[in-house]
Amino acid sequence: MFIPLLPRLLLTTLLCAVAPLRAAVLTNLEYGQAAGVSLKLDAYVPDGPGPHPTVILVHGGGWTGGDKDGGKNQGYMMPMHEPLSTAGFAWFSINYRLAPAHRHPAQVEDVETAIRWVKAHAGEYRLDPRRIALSGESAGGHLVALAAVRADDSTRVAAVVPFYGVFDLVAEAHRRGGAIPSFNKLLGRDTLDETMLKLMRDASPQNFVKPGLPPFLLVHGTADQTVAYQQSVDMQTRLRAAGVPCELLPIKDGPHGMLPWPKLAPDFKDRVVAWLRKTLAVPPTPKK
């Protein structure tokens, strides 16, 4: 029997609406292009019609390396994939342009591009654009904090979770006795002179904290020898002084990188997810 076009479209829409919406893992989606580089991300979208709360994940690697898929050791932000998926969050794990081929602010600009892309595709992936969080580790922790303090209406998010991020590059350089190779590559300068100090100050999220930022959860190992735990302590002080809600989750004796943390703090992933649930007002996931 022939069905006119408009009723057919309505029928298709109704069938799609009642069909089960299955969880999906998507890889190497292009979220933008910059300086001749195709910017890619991997994604997980949960079951159901949503709209789902979402976390954009940003890997570390000293701004010069790392990968969205966790690399050979399944590190970086990879350990958070499963707990977020189980808790009913969508997540988008991004790659970005790397130094020294691409200098600051290319990396944070790519994070901002990813935020805009996720918001623009919220309908397609059944996301709630009002419940998007940023989370990154190490260099990625720096980038998500920097994106948050730089945000305009198009890149504003609802929560930020940096793991062992660098928030004051000058203080970290002084702690480590001068120029740091990864800083040099990020900023394109080898000499710790006044020009370099200005570049570091301009790239330090702590210097741009202001009222009205989204809530932060800072996660940091107390035995971190790569990025001082004091970085997160000082960032919390600065955020709270500006009236920004900020909690600090210390991992006692935790080194840099979260792969060894389950032996030291078996519940740290659950605590991060619980904070995201509370901050984004996410109801508990029904037990199957």
Structural notes for this entry:
The chain has 288 residues and is an alpha/beta fold. The chain has a single domain (15-279), classed as Alpha/Beta hydrolase fold, catalytic domain (Rossmann fold). It has 10 helices and 8 strands. The protein has helices spanning 5-18, 81-86, 106-120, 139-150, 169-175, 181-187, 194-202, 230-241, 261-264, 268-279, and strands at 24-34, 37-45, 52-58, 90-94, 127-137, 159-163, 216-221, 246-251. It has an 8-stranded mixed β-sheet with strand order 1-2-4-3-5-6-7-8, sandwiched between helices. β5, α4 (139-150) and β6 (159-163) form a beta-alpha-beta unit. α3 (106-120) packs across α4 (139-150). The chain is globular. The termini are far apart. The model is unreliable at 1-20 (pLDDT under 50).
Give me a quick take on this structure.
This protein is of the alpha/beta class. The protein is built from ten helices and eight strands.
Rough outline:
globular
Give the name of the CATH architecture.
3-Layer(aba) Sandwich
Percent helix among the residues? Answer: 25-40%
Largest sheet: 8 strands, mixed
Query: Order of strands across the widest beta sheet?
Result: 1-2-4-3-5-6-7-8
Number of domains as seen in the coordinates: 1
Radius of gyration: 20 Å
Class in CATH? Alpha Beta
Number of E-state strands = 8
N-end to C-end Cα span = 42 Å
- The mean pLDDT is 92
Indicate the low-confidence ranges by residue numbers: 1-20
Tell me the CATH superfamily. Alpha/Beta hydrolase fold, catalytic domain
